[in-house]
Specification:
57 strands; 6-stranded antiparallel sheet; mainly beta; 10 helices; globular; Neuraminidase; Transferase(Phosphotransferase), domain 1
């Protein structure tokens, strides 16, 4: 029965009922002691009479009351009088997010603003060990001044707090038993649906559902019944947000998708990390909400909120550092290198004053040099075609001899050499990376074996392997862990920070990044520093703890690459300008033309007559969203066709086959002129790598993957049916360009052992191609079908060979390299016209300057 007006409970005078629900009745009341208006929530009788429930609710009320955060409903008091239990809260004026969503989706700017405030409130709760477990639009309130308040911690779970210094502040007895389903259908995390144990990452999934609904106006997961809704949460992906808003920033869509990962290990690992991503999208560092939040809840010293705390540092164009507090002195930077070229790797020597680095200056071969902080000069160690991999605590170098400087790193024969001079002693062939143990006694290495990238320590003992690739292995100061960057795709810079112990126990401790390259431990061993970009390739310097708490250390209007951190805290950084570009030889011309458009152009296909180029832009110019362009080889302006990753151009030039969305990706035929796009059935394919049209344009050869596993070739009939596999399962294959024979009966591809095979389209045993170097990738058949062109990717300049299929004689057809080779670190794609007289290729260009930074924290 509702309480009549004038009833007094524990010094609070009831004025009027303002709400009721399953968890009790809410009244407007006056605090007679402090003469203020409050909200008074009276608990249901079944809770008031149950000692265990009452004790639990009181404990949760105390925990939430201790938060004192501007984005969480404040709890003032808890009491019991005459058998009535009640809790006293601040009185809010405004509307719930559910009521606001009744009018439709929010503008993206407003959705991000509200989402950021929700994340800040969740971060405060999670720091105290409180998991909400029932986050939904009904429990998010928007005050009249635009402040977000998280309501109703009635299902909250108190767990050990994330902040170590608060670990003893709460009674941590579990509230619920495993196997109990807690939450609201439609906003539950997969682990809640399965009644598994939950942690703070469950709230991040629920938040992702809310953010999706704010942006789209529809629920992320909704079925005709509760059971169907829960099944969707476990098995289905919500529709793409761009279906309702084509102007939506793709980076915001990626944030939502990252929140809604089914496996919590693949979501954002903290609300603060998520808040940082939203802040970067909103540009809201000066908003009133953030200023108030910062004023009330300063971050722990090692995890700043980074809202409006950027400090300028005077450095050739300006670095911007995320500071802990405004009183922190800005960092200083000392430039070490001044020549034009690319730096492959750099390390501090044990004295902390000498720097050893490898670089390719002016297009020459890579060499190892040294410099000092007190001198602008660099001295060559006389080791040409060699790169430094690591420097031990005793001054011994691990180097790569016969180094092929490819994609910005050196790989070759691992050798040991003293900084003091003397001959190098060879250790192991074909090594990509190496790292000394802290005592300088032994080496960990990264190398290829059996088609996988392997991290070995000691030599021969595999701690971790992947079909992708591994970079920057670094021992922790104690030597018990190796941190490294785990790149899932063999041809991309995307990846995550991971650690593995000496027993091989693996842990991923950061979310995935669009570009990540460069890693080192800070001297304390409590953080791993790395350079990465959420979107594009403009990397910043970040730090992450082993528990997954991350922060920004340094931002710059350029790409940063972390090389090393000394025991004194000095940081060795390269500032790099990086771009991908197109070079092509148009028909009838004698000189190549640069056909690049924005900052990261990648060739996808060239028309049979060589007059039109299909290419992709995916850098800063398109905010890292893959975008399809078409351009005439004569240098006329490019034409944007749409979003997606281009794969192939039809023989008549009327259609572009593109990979879109995902995962899983779909194959779409995009018209180059008037017409409507066509989505083709994917069958078992979940990812598309390459594609080529058959003569006549009625079929497509596809290089695809099934759930991320080995690459396999398929034939897709454009008129009917799913794609049909035409290469064996499990035997990874590769091609580029258009490797289909002129009669359309066969195609060439590189097999799992690096040999080129000719596969019959109708099925049957593939035949090996004799005469080509192992590792070459087929590009195109000659027009008469007598020769096969192949491309050796592992070289700069790129080497294109022509093999006579009758005599099996291989000849070097052309070496491809821009006229100015300075800064060219790789050639990634090559394609030819049908007569071989026109061609296009993609180059990777990087220019580096090395700096030492002091004062970064």
């Amino acid at each position: 029965m509702p309480l009549p007006s004038g009833t007094t409970l524990g010094g609070y005078e009831v004025q009027a009922q303002i709400g009721a629900g399953g968890m009790g009745e809410v009244y407007r009341a006056r605090d007679t002691r402090l003469d203020r208006v409050v909200a008074l929530k009276v608990l249901p009788d079944h809770l008031s009479r149950d000692p265990e429930s009452l004790t639990r609710f009181e404990r949760e009320a105390k925990a939430v009351a201790a938060l004192s955060h501007s984005n969480i409903l404040a709890i003032f008091d808890f009491g019991k009088q005459d058998g009535v239990a009640f809790v006293v809260m601040e009185l809010l004026e405004g509307e719930s997010l559910r009521a606001r969503l009744a009018a439709g989706p929010l503008p993206p700017r407003k959705a991000v603003e509200y989402g950021l405030q929700i994340c800040l409130g969740l971060a405060a709760a999670h720091d105290k060990g409180i998991v909400h477990r029932d986050l939904k639009p009904e429990n998010v309130f928007i005050t009249k001044d635009g402040r977000i308040k998280i309501l109703d911690f009635g299902l909250a779970k108190v767990t050990p707090p994330q902040a170590p210094h608060e670990r003893d502040t709460l009674d941590l007895t579990p509230m619920t038993q495993p196997g109990t389903v807690m939450g609201t259908v439609g906003y539950m995390s997969p682990e809640q649906v399965r009644a598994d144990e939950v942690d703070h990452r469950s709230d991040l999934f629920s938040f992702g559902s809310i953010l999706y609904e704010m942006l789209s106006g529809r629920r992320a997961f909704k079925g005709d019944s509760a059971v169907e809704t829960m099944s969707a949460i476990l098995k289905e992906e919500p529709p793409e947000l761009v279906e309702t808003n084509r102007t939506l920033d793709p980076a915001l869509e990626r944030v939502v998708r990252h929140c809604l990962e089914k496996r919590r290990e693949e979501r954002f690992q903290s609300a603060r990390d998520l808040a940082f991503q939203l802040q970067a999208l909103s540009g809201a560092s000066s908003s009133a909400a953030l200023r108030a939040a910062d004023a009330r809840t300063p971050s722990p010293p090692r995890r700043p909120l980074l809202a409006g705390l950027a400090l300028a540092a005077a450095l050739a164009g300006g670095f911007w550092a995320g500071a802990h507090w405004m009183r922190t002195a800005p960092p200083t930077f000392h430039q070490l290198t001044f020549r034009r070229g690319t730096i492959a790797a750099a390390r501090f020597a044990p004295d902390g004053q000498t720097i050893v680095y490898s670089a390719a200056w002016g297009g020459s071969r890579v060499e190892i040099l040294t410099t000092r902080l007190d001198s602008p000069e660099s001295r060559s160690l006389g080791l040409s075609s060699a790169g430094v991999l690591a420097v031990s605590s005793s001054g011994e170098m691990a180097i790569a001899l016969g180094c092929e400087f490819f994609w910005g790193s050196c790989q070759g024969t691992l050798a040991r050499a003293s900084l003091a001079g003397g001959a190098a002693r060879e250790v192991l062939q074909d090594v990509h990376e190496a790292e000394w143990t802290p005592d300088g006694a032994d080496l960990a290495v990264v190398r290829d074996a059996e088609g996988r990238h392997r991290l070995e320590f000691p030599l021969g003992h595999v701690l971790y392997d992947t079909p992708g690739w591994i970079s920057h292995p670094r021992f922790s100061p104690r030597g018990d862990l190796i941190a490294f960057i785990d790149h899932p795709s063999p041809s991309e810079e995307s990846g995550s920070v991971a650690v593995v112990d000496r027993a091989g126990k693996y842990q991923k401790i950061s979310p995935g990044w669009s570009s990540i390259w460069g890693l080192a431990w800070n001297p304390s061993g409590r953080e791993i520093w790395f350079t990465a970009a959420e979107v594009g390739r403009a990397q910043s310097l970040h730090a992450v703890t082993l528990s997954g708490e991350s922060r920004v250390v340094l931002r710059a209007p350029a790409r940063l690459l972390l090389h090393d951190v000394s025991k004194h805290g000095r940081v060795l950084l390269a500032r790099e300008t990086a771009r991908g570009g197109l070079m092509g030889l148009p028909p009838g011309q004698k000189e190549e033309r640069d056909l690049s458009w924005f900052d990261w152009s990648t060739a996808a296909d060239i028309s049979p007559d060589g007059r039109t180029v299909l290419f992709c832009e995916r850098g800063e110019g398109t905010k890292a969203a893959p975008t399809v362009y078409l351009r005439a080889a004569d240098g006329s302006p490019a034409v944007k066709l749409g979003e997606g990753r281009p794969l192939a151009l039809s023989p008549d030039g009327g259609w572009a086959a593109i990979a879109k969305g995902g995962p899983p990706e779909t194959l779409v035929l995009l018209p180059t002129g008037p017409g409507e796009p066509r989505t083709l059935p994917s069958g078992a394919i979940t990812g598309y790598v390459e594609a080529a049209f058959f003569p006549g344009g009625k079929r497509i050869l596809i290089l695809g993957t099934e759930n991320g596993f080995a690459r396999r070739c398929y034939v897709q009939d454009l008129d009917s049916g799913d794609p049909r596999p035409v290469s064996p399962a499990g035997a990874s294959v590769d091609f580029t360009g258009n490797p289909i024979s002129p009669d359309g009966r066969s195609f060439a591809a590189r097999g799992a052992e690096g040999k080129i095979l000719i596969y019959p389209v109708a099925g049957g045993t593939p035949q090996p191609v004799r005469g080509l170097d192992a590792g070459s990738v087929p590009v195109r058949w000659s027009g008469d079908g007598r020769s096969l062109f192949a491309f050796a990717r592992e070289h700069v300049p790129a080497r294109v060979f022509r093999l006579n299929l009758t005599s099996h004689v291989q000849e070097l057809w052309k070496e491809l390299l821009p006229a100015d080779p300075t800064g060219i670190v790789g050639i990634s794609t090559v394609d030819l016209s049908s007569d071989g007289r026109a061609y296009i290729y993609t180059y990777d260009h990087r220019m580096s300057e090395l700096y030492v930074a002091e004062g970064l924290r």
